[in-house]
Amino acid sequence: MSLTHSLLLIALLIAASAFFSVAEISLAASRRLRLRQMADEGDTRADRVLLMQDQPGEYFTVVQIGLNAVAILGGIIGEGALSPYFNALFALWLPEKSAQTLGFVGSFLAVTSLFILFADLLPKRLGMAHPEVVALRVVRPMQGCMALFKPIVWLYSRCADALLRLMGLSSQRDERITPEDILAMTEAGARAGVLALPEQQVIANVFELDTRSVTSAMTLRERIAFFLRDDPDELIRARIAAEPFSTYPVCDGDIDHVVGYVDAKDLFQRVLNNQPISLADDQLVRKVLIVPDRLSLAEVLAHFRQVHEDFAVIVNEYSRVVGVVTLNDVMSTVMGDLVGPADEEQIVRRDENSWLIDGTAPIEDVLHVLGLDELPHSEDYETLAGFLMVMLRRVPRRTDSVTVGHYKFEVLDVDSYRIDQVMVSRLLTAPAENGAQAEAARS
User: Where is it mostly found (predicted)?
Assistant: First the structure.
């Protein structure tokens, strides 16, 4: 065989190997969501690729047969075609035996380099850069190869399936999309600049609704503006002017005996029409939704949908009212920094290494801001104030502090045993005894 014929045959083998390489990587890297979109747009080739991804066994068997057969043939032909020329070249300076050895090595390196560069690296980079486009182009030729080598494919596939069964493994790819998968995609999109960071945080907040307690978004008992059933008209009008809210609980005797709620729109309508306001009127007081404080925000949303309400009173296991929550509170939790005036922020960053945080701030928000996964004894509290009480084992006083890891939590203001403000500082160095200090404070 002449050198020209040998080089042409090597080029054909490289092209065949490149085809199988790009077919392999493009199928593995193709995104099912993108392929499904192409299929919905009428591209029948996308359906073929999806079918191959569902049952990839025979497809990859053909790929491996082709790659290995081509590699063996390339080695045989390349060594026989190029070795004489390398031998003759090295014989100009070296003894015959040494020239033959170096000629074989040179021929091997030359053929191997050609296959690595043109049959492996370039095709796989192309397949990784445009997986769906490449997969659509090679799927039909690959189906032809599968039909051509069907007996051999069947034999190897059955052997591979048997070995997988013996090892207790499955040959089917798990295509279920989990919340973690979606969050990982949105984080990658945010890093690439495709998705804005606030938008990515909104998506993350939606998936946190199942894990966040309703108490993390509620208005605390001490801040609830409510009416008593027998409040006179003058007091109701004065309360509306002093504490304007959209909804007011109506109670019988005290806040722990809620009988309903009144909408501010109904009150304003009566005020504008110069009508007297009496909470004894059952047409004015609506039935209130009562939910336990152990529900998640997702469960509260389900209750809102079920009863077609957007306001609920939250009670604990002793039937004491601990707070109220509205649909707007839940949505504000989802939207995060995209909504809400600055004067209502519970967490204010002072500088690069310190934050001023309200004691009622949900511990999930604190962890997110500080970049922490969890704090000690996280199952025992839901707010920053609760964290300090658990760690100190008493009601904190002004200047009390707790150090955990690289962070110091210092109480700045206490009002009637209620922790108003906490300064959180990031320590540049975390002494080894920090964790011990936190545990000592708790004990």
Answer: membrane
pLDDT digit string (tens) for 244-271?
888 999 999 899 999 999 998 888 888 8
One of 3.90.650.10, 3.40.190.10, 3.50.50.60, 3.10.580.10 is the CATH number of 214-336, namely 3.10.580.10
CB 226, CB 249: distance < 8 Å: yes
Contact 198, 336 (CB under 8 A): yes
Residue from 342, 340, 387, 338 nearest 360 by CA: 387
Please count the CA atoms within 13 angstroms of the CA of 374 that sit on its side-chain side.
Answer: 6
Element (H, E) at 347: strand 347-351
Amino acid identity at 400: D
pLDDT tens digits for range 277-315: 888 888 889 999 999 988 989 999 999 999 998 999 999
The overall pTM is greater than 0.85: no
Residues of each domain in the chain carrying CATH 3.10.580.10: 214-336
Helix axes 197-208, 179-192, angle to 10 degrees: 170
Residue 296 is inside which H or E element, if any? none
For 291, list phi and psi in degrees, rounded to 5.
-130, 150
Retrieve residue 230's tokens. 């027998």
**CA neighbor of 133 nearest in space, from 34, 14, 21:** 34
CATH architecture type of domain 341-442? 2-Layer Sandwich (3.30)
Domain with CATH 3.30.465.10 in the chain: 341-442
